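Fold it.
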Amino acid sequence: MIGPDLDEAAQPRIVTARARRAHKPRPPLAVLEERIGHRFADQTLLTRALTHTSKASGRGGSYQRLEFLGDRVLGLAVADRLYGAFPEADEGDLSRRLAALVRRETCAVVAAAWDVGPHLILGQGEVMGGGRRNQTILADVCEAILGAIYLDAGFDIARAVVEAHFRPGEPTAAARGRDAKSALQEWAMGRGLPIPTYAVVERTGPDHAPRFRIAVEVDGLAPGLGEGTSKRIAEQAAAQALMEREGIGALPAAEPTETA
Protein backbone atom coordinates (compact mmCIF):
# COMPACT_ATOMS: atom_id res chain seq x y z
CA MET A 1 0.00 0.00 0.00
CA ILE A 2 1.27 3.44 -0.91
CA GLY A 3 1.38 5.82 2.01
CA PRO A 4 -0.38 9.18 1.78
CA ASP A 5 2.88 11.04 2.31
CA LEU A 6 4.62 9.37 -0.64
CA ASP A 7 5.61 11.85 -3.31
CA GLU A 8 2.85 11.90 -5.91
CA ALA A 9 5.36 11.78 -8.76
CA ALA A 10 6.67 8.49 -7.43
CA GLN A 11 3.28 6.81 -7.45
CA PRO A 12 2.53 4.50 -10.40
CA ARG A 13 0.20 6.02 -12.97
CA ILE A 14 -2.35 3.96 -14.85
CA VAL A 15 -2.61 5.07 -18.45
CA THR A 16 -5.37 3.60 -20.55
CA ALA A 17 -4.91 2.60 -24.16
CA ARG A 18 -7.40 5.31 -25.13
CA ALA A 19 -5.38 7.95 -23.34
CA ARG A 20 -2.20 6.77 -25.03
CA ARG A 21 -3.87 7.09 -28.42
CA ALA A 22 -5.11 10.57 -27.50
CA HIS A 23 -1.55 11.73 -26.79
CA LYS A 24 0.08 9.98 -29.75
CA PRO A 25 2.31 12.47 -31.61
CA ARG A 26 1.06 13.66 -34.97
CA PRO A 27 3.00 12.37 -37.99
CA PRO A 28 5.05 14.86 -40.05
CA LEU A 29 3.05 17.05 -42.42
CA ALA A 30 5.30 15.89 -45.26
CA VAL A 31 3.56 12.50 -45.07
CA LEU A 32 0.19 14.13 -45.64
CA GLU A 33 1.55 16.40 -48.37
CA GLU A 34 2.78 13.32 -50.21
CA ARG A 35 -0.67 11.74 -50.16
CA ILE A 36 -2.38 14.95 -51.25
CA GLY A 37 0.14 15.55 -54.02
CA HIS A 38 1.14 19.08 -53.09
CA ARG A 39 4.13 20.41 -51.16
CA PHE A 40 3.17 23.64 -49.39
CA ALA A 41 5.39 26.68 -49.70
CA ASP A 42 3.58 28.03 -46.63
CA GLN A 43 2.93 25.14 -44.26
CA THR A 44 1.02 27.38 -41.86
CA LEU A 45 -1.86 27.21 -44.35
CA LEU A 46 -1.96 23.42 -44.10
CA THR A 47 -1.70 23.60 -40.32
CA ARG A 48 -4.67 25.95 -40.18
CA ALA A 49 -6.64 23.68 -42.52
CA LEU A 50 -6.15 20.87 -39.98
CA THR A 51 -7.08 22.92 -36.90
CA HIS A 52 -10.54 22.38 -35.42
CA THR A 53 -12.37 25.19 -33.63
CA SER A 54 -11.89 23.30 -30.35
CA LYS A 55 -8.14 23.92 -30.60
CA ALA A 56 -8.03 27.23 -32.46
CA SER A 57 -6.67 30.41 -30.93
CA GLY A 58 -9.00 33.18 -32.00
CA ARG A 59 -11.79 33.19 -34.57
CA GLY A 60 -9.43 32.99 -37.55
CA GLY A 61 -7.28 30.17 -36.24
CA SER A 62 -9.45 27.25 -37.31
CA TYR A 63 -10.15 25.70 -40.70
CA GLN A 64 -13.57 27.34 -41.11
CA ARG A 65 -12.59 30.20 -43.43
CA LEU A 66 -10.46 27.87 -45.56
CA GLU A 67 -13.37 25.42 -45.71
CA PHE A 68 -15.59 28.19 -47.13
CA LEU A 69 -13.00 28.95 -49.81
CA GLY A 70 -12.24 25.32 -50.57
CA ASP A 71 -15.90 24.50 -51.14
CA ARG A 72 -15.97 27.05 -53.98
CA VAL A 73 -12.63 25.87 -55.39
CA LEU A 74 -13.89 22.29 -55.44
CA GLY A 75 -17.17 23.22 -57.09
CA LEU A 76 -15.52 25.23 -59.88
CA ALA A 77 -12.81 22.63 -60.51
CA VAL A 78 -15.31 19.78 -60.75
CA ALA A 79 -17.77 21.77 -62.87
CA ASP A 80 -14.99 22.70 -65.29
CA ARG A 81 -13.88 19.08 -65.58
CA LEU A 82 -17.40 17.74 -66.11
CA TYR A 83 -18.15 20.39 -68.75
CA GLY A 84 -15.17 19.21 -70.79
CA ALA A 85 -15.55 15.49 -70.10
CA PHE A 86 -19.23 15.19 -71.05
CA PRO A 87 -19.86 17.45 -74.06
CA GLU A 88 -23.20 15.78 -74.83
CA ALA A 89 -24.60 15.94 -71.28
CA ASP A 90 -27.40 18.37 -70.56
CA GLU A 91 -27.54 20.73 -67.58
CA GLY A 92 -29.51 18.26 -65.44
CA ASP A 93 -27.04 15.43 -65.99
CA LEU A 94 -24.07 17.71 -65.30
CA SER A 95 -25.73 18.97 -62.12
CA ARG A 96 -26.31 15.43 -60.84
CA ARG A 97 -22.72 14.45 -61.54
CA LEU A 98 -21.48 17.61 -59.84
CA ALA A 99 -23.64 16.98 -56.76
CA ALA A 100 -22.29 13.44 -56.46
CA LEU A 101 -18.67 14.58 -56.62
CA VAL A 102 -18.83 17.56 -54.26
CA ARG A 103 -21.17 16.06 -51.64
CA ARG A 104 -19.82 16.04 -48.10
CA GLU A 105 -19.78 12.25 -47.98
CA THR A 106 -17.40 12.22 -50.96
CA CYS A 107 -15.16 14.82 -49.31
CA ALA A 108 -15.02 12.66 -46.19
CA VAL A 109 -14.00 9.63 -48.28
CA VAL A 110 -11.21 11.63 -49.93
CA ALA A 111 -9.99 12.90 -46.55
CA ALA A 112 -9.97 9.33 -45.25
CA ALA A 113 -7.96 8.24 -48.31
CA TRP A 114 -5.45 10.96 -47.43
CA ASP A 115 -5.44 9.57 -43.85
CA VAL A 116 -6.06 13.05 -42.49
CA GLY A 117 -7.20 11.81 -39.07
CA PRO A 118 -3.80 11.47 -37.34
CA HIS A 119 -2.84 14.98 -38.51
CA LEU A 120 -5.92 16.77 -37.14
CA ILE A 121 -5.37 19.36 -34.43
CA LEU A 122 -8.27 18.84 -32.04
CA GLY A 123 -9.23 19.76 -28.52
CA GLN A 124 -9.07 16.97 -25.96
CA GLY A 125 -12.85 16.54 -25.95
CA GLU A 126 -12.95 16.05 -29.71
CA VAL A 127 -10.07 13.57 -29.57
CA MET A 128 -11.73 11.47 -26.88
CA GLY A 129 -15.05 11.69 -28.73
CA GLY A 130 -13.66 10.13 -31.92
CA GLY A 131 -13.12 13.37 -33.81
CA ARG A 132 -10.35 11.93 -35.94
CA ARG A 133 -12.91 9.63 -37.56
CA ASN A 134 -15.87 12.02 -37.55
CA GLN A 135 -17.27 12.26 -41.06
CA THR A 136 -18.34 15.88 -40.74
CA ILE A 137 -14.89 16.98 -39.55
CA LEU A 138 -13.16 14.98 -42.29
CA ALA A 139 -15.37 16.53 -44.97
CA ASP A 140 -14.77 20.05 -43.63
CA VAL A 141 -11.01 19.52 -43.49
CA CYS A 142 -10.91 18.15 -47.03
CA GLU A 143 -12.47 21.36 -48.32
CA ALA A 144 -10.20 23.45 -46.08
CA ILE A 145 -7.13 21.74 -47.52
CA LEU A 146 -8.29 22.58 -51.04
CA GLY A 147 -8.74 26.19 -49.97
CA ALA A 148 -5.24 26.17 -48.48
CA ILE A 149 -3.77 24.78 -51.70
CA TYR A 150 -5.53 27.51 -53.69
CA LEU A 151 -4.01 30.23 -51.49
CA ASP A 152 -0.60 28.54 -51.51
CA ALA A 153 -0.24 27.85 -55.22
CA GLY A 154 -3.26 29.11 -57.18
CA PHE A 155 -6.26 27.59 -58.90
CA ASP A 156 -4.42 25.46 -61.48
CA ILE A 157 -2.60 23.50 -58.78
CA ALA A 158 -5.76 23.17 -56.70
CA ARG A 159 -7.62 21.93 -59.77
CA ALA A 160 -4.90 19.33 -60.41
CA VAL A 161 -5.34 17.99 -56.87
CA VAL A 162 -9.11 17.87 -57.33
CA GLU A 163 -8.76 16.04 -60.65
CA ALA A 164 -6.43 13.50 -59.05
CA HIS A 165 -8.78 12.64 -56.19
CA PHE A 166 -12.35 13.48 -57.26
CA ARG A 167 -12.85 11.27 -60.29
CA PRO A 168 -16.18 10.71 -62.05
CA GLY A 169 -17.20 7.06 -62.12
CA GLU A 170 -14.91 5.93 -59.30
CA PRO A 171 -16.19 4.79 -55.87
CA THR A 172 -15.01 7.96 -54.14
CA ALA A 173 -17.15 9.99 -56.50
CA ALA A 174 -20.32 8.43 -55.08
CA ALA A 175 -21.56 8.55 -58.66
CA ARG A 176 -23.91 5.61 -58.49
CA GLY A 177 -26.67 7.27 -60.49
CA ARG A 178 -29.03 9.64 -58.74
CA ASP A 179 -28.81 9.98 -54.99
CA ALA A 180 -32.03 9.25 -53.11
CA LYS A 181 -32.94 12.91 -52.47
CA SER A 182 -32.54 13.86 -56.12
CA ALA A 183 -34.45 10.79 -57.28
CA LEU A 184 -37.33 11.49 -54.91
CA GLN A 185 -37.47 15.15 -55.91
CA GLU A 186 -37.54 14.29 -59.61
CA TRP A 187 -40.28 11.73 -59.00
CA ALA A 188 -42.42 14.27 -57.13
CA MET A 189 -41.90 17.06 -59.66
CA GLY A 190 -42.68 14.67 -62.52
CA ARG A 191 -46.12 14.17 -60.98
CA GLY A 192 -46.79 17.84 -60.35
CA LEU A 193 -46.23 17.51 -56.61
CA PRO A 194 -44.43 20.05 -54.42
CA ILE A 195 -40.75 19.44 -53.70
CA PRO A 196 -40.31 17.02 -50.74
CA THR A 197 -39.68 18.72 -47.41
CA TYR A 198 -37.34 17.56 -44.65
CA ALA A 199 -37.62 18.23 -40.92
CA VAL A 200 -35.48 17.24 -37.93
CA VAL A 201 -37.56 14.98 -35.69
CA GLU A 202 -34.89 14.35 -33.09
CA ARG A 203 -31.30 15.29 -32.36
CA THR A 204 -29.32 13.22 -29.89
CA GLY A 205 -25.73 12.84 -28.77
CA PRO A 206 -23.09 15.38 -27.71
CA ASP A 207 -22.16 18.38 -29.86
CA HIS A 208 -19.01 16.69 -31.16
CA ALA A 209 -20.87 13.52 -32.22
CA PRO A 210 -24.52 14.35 -32.94
CA ARG A 211 -27.09 11.99 -34.42
CA PHE A 212 -30.10 13.19 -36.37
CA ARG A 213 -33.49 11.63 -37.05
CA ILE A 214 -35.19 13.30 -40.01
CA ALA A 215 -38.59 12.92 -41.66
CA VAL A 216 -39.26 13.57 -45.34
CA GLU A 217 -42.78 14.45 -46.45
CA VAL A 218 -44.32 14.12 -49.90
CA ASP A 219 -47.92 15.10 -50.58
CA GLY A 220 -50.21 12.08 -50.31
CA LEU A 221 -47.63 9.77 -48.73
CA ALA A 222 -46.76 8.86 -45.17
CA PRO A 223 -43.45 10.41 -44.05
CA GLY A 224 -40.19 8.54 -44.51
CA LEU A 225 -37.74 8.47 -41.60
CA GLY A 226 -33.96 8.30 -41.66
CA GLU A 227 -31.08 8.59 -39.21
CA GLY A 228 -27.46 9.61 -39.54
CA THR A 229 -24.49 11.41 -38.04
CA SER A 230 -25.24 14.49 -40.16
CA LYS A 231 -28.41 16.07 -41.49
CA ARG A 232 -27.40 15.25 -45.04
CA ILE A 233 -26.92 11.57 -44.30
CA ALA A 234 -30.20 11.41 -42.39
CA GLU A 235 -32.04 13.17 -45.24
CA GLN A 236 -30.66 10.69 -47.77
CA ALA A 237 -31.67 7.81 -45.53
CA ALA A 238 -35.18 9.24 -45.11
CA ALA A 239 -35.62 9.69 -48.86
CA GLN A 240 -34.38 6.19 -49.56
CA ALA A 241 -36.63 4.69 -46.87
CA LEU A 242 -39.70 6.38 -48.37
CA MET A 243 -38.80 5.27 -51.90
CA GLU A 244 -38.20 1.69 -50.85
CA ARG A 245 -41.48 1.56 -48.96
CA GLU A 246 -43.47 3.00 -51.86
CA GLY A 247 -41.56 1.21 -54.62
CA ILE A 248 -40.61 4.50 -56.25
CA GLY A 249 -38.05 4.65 -59.05
CA ALA A 250 -34.57 3.17 -59.27
CA LEU A 251 -32.59 3.59 -56.10
CA PRO A 252 -28.86 4.11 -55.76
CA ALA A 253 -26.95 0.84 -55.39
CA ALA A 254 -25.73 1.84 -51.95
CA GLU A 255 -25.50 4.86 -49.72
CA PRO A 256 -22.28 6.00 -48.04
CA THR A 257 -21.53 4.30 -44.76
CA GLU A 258 -21.28 6.42 -41.67
CA THR A 259 -18.04 6.99 -39.94
CA ALA A 260 -18.20 6.89 -36.19
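Residues 1-12, 170-177, 250-260 have pLDDT under 50 and may be disordered.
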